[in-house]
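Please fill in the sequence for the structure shown.

STRUCTURE ENCODING:
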């Protein structure tokens, strides 16, 4: 009997495809290796013959895909001798930076927009010991300040302009190709700074060019004995990026100064990976589109109610977009579609509770009352 190696995070797993050395001290919390879940009930109800998968990135250690990039960024910061990291954040980057800094034993400074951060994310940054700096401004203001202060303060920026972030995040594409045996036909992502859509394209491109862990390369994780050995080289998906209508610079064709949306994780008007994302669109033959807040929330609820998967509002826009494009015929039958669910629903309990219409029944603590409540509500 052979035992599978204990999973110790994405850098270890994809070591030969990432910029680390043999003696680099890895700062990891076991991130990556997230489930790719095939939706059952939603496609059936839509009456469509499309394979829809969701990549549940909310199951990373701090509840969002940011951990993929943060393990790399903090590993490299520590390797370079840095004692502190800094980021601007709509919430998830700060939660992740705080956790990896704690793990590494260094300080995290996080700039967040006052009053516009989901409660779960704020709780994480605070309990993980980050220095939380609330600014009377939005993410874009924070980003500008972080760039300026890092020029002469001894801190490493861990926003996605740090190139190691995208290197870590590209591994999500590797996992998808390995799991499906090929790239999907379409990949849908929410777009804020556009770092993640760029990172996925890097990952798919490396894999398809054969640089990746593929048919011939032995899997460094399992030494060639796993179900992944045999992934098809040469395929890349069409990349589709969705933005909230109130924060949609890629749809307007220019930066937006007062971004606003319930999907706080993508409440960004000045995307940092602007040029890269346009290139991804062009090279992949993809497109950008937008959704209103009510459609985002309705899809968050649909996914939770019909499939039991709880993601945060920003994440739901990927599925909202895919459903819309399936209905309009942009996606042909028999296609495979992957939607990235970027963050966990528990990040933003307030928004979830506010929009829940499910029955909340108040009764006396008596058997008859419980029985009656069951009879009244059984379907
Ligand atoms: C950061 C984040 C995004 C946006 O990703 P970008 O790389 O900035 O485009 C989307 N959803 C969630 C939950 C996030 O935390």
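FILLED IN BY: designer on duty
SEQUENCE:
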């Amino acid at each position: 009997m052979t035992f599978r190696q204990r999973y110790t995070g994405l850098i270890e797993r994809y070591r030969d495809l990432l910029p680390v050395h043999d003696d680099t001290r890895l700062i990891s919390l076991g991130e990556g290796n997230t489930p790719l879940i095939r939706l059952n009930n939603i496609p059936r109800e839509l009456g469509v013959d499309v394979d829809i998968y969701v990549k549940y990135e909310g199951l990373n250690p701090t509840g969002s895909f940011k951990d993929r990039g943060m393990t790399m960024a903090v590993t490299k910061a520590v390797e370079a001798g840095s004692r502190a990291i800094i980021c601007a954040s709509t919430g998830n980057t700060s939660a992740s930076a705080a956790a990896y800094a704690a793990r590494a034993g260094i300080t995290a400074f996080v700039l967040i927009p006052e009053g516009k951060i989901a409660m779960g994310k704020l709780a994480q940054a605070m309990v993980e010991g980050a220095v939380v700096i609330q600014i009377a401004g939005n993410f874009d203001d924070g980003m500008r300040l972080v760039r300026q202060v890092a020029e002469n303060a001894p801190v490493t920026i861990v926003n996605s302009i740090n190139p190691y972030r995208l290197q870590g995040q590209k591994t999500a594409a590797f996992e998808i190709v390995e799991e499906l045996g090929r790239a999907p036909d379409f990949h849908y992502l929410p777009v804020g700074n556009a770092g993640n859509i760029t990172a996925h394209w890097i990952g798919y491109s490396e894999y398809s060019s054969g640089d990746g862990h593929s048919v011939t390369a032995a899997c460094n994780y399992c030494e060639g004995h796993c179900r992944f050995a045999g992934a098809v080289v040469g395929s890349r998906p069409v990349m589709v990026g969705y933005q909230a209508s109130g924060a949609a610079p890629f749809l307007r064709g220019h930066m937006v100064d007062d971004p606003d949306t319930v999907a706080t994780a993508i409440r960004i008007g000045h995307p940092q990976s602007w040029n890269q994302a346009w290139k991804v669109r062009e090279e992949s033959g993809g497109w950008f589109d937008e959704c209103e807040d009510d459609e985002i929330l309705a899809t968050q609820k649909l996914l939770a109610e019909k499939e039991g998967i709880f993601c945060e509002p920003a994440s739901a826009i990927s599925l909202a977009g895919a459903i819309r494009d399936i209905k309009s015929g942009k996606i042909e039958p028999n296609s495979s579609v992957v939607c990235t669910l970027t963050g966990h629903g528990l990040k933003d309990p307030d928004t979830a509770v506010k929009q829940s219409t499910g029955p909340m029944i108040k009764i006396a603590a008596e058997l008859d009352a419980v029985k009656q409540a069951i009879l009244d509500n059984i379907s």
